[in-house]
Amino acid sequence: MTRLSLNRELLENVARASGGQFFPEEEIGGIQNLLDSIDKTRVIESQTNLWSSYWWFGAIIACLTAEWILRKRAGYV
Prior knowledge:
3 helices
């Protein structure tokens, strides 16, 4: 009912069209080398305390004030 054998040509065309690479089972070691080169990227994280930033504090207070005003007009407060 369904062809389950490997269609190597189709897989190579898909890999080439998408900018990737095709590795058959026999060449599985090539994937490790490829992943090692990708893994050497550097990730930089920074943290900002919300209570130390006046801009975030102002934005939160503005949102809470707007909610209070809308509730007041709707009669929920």
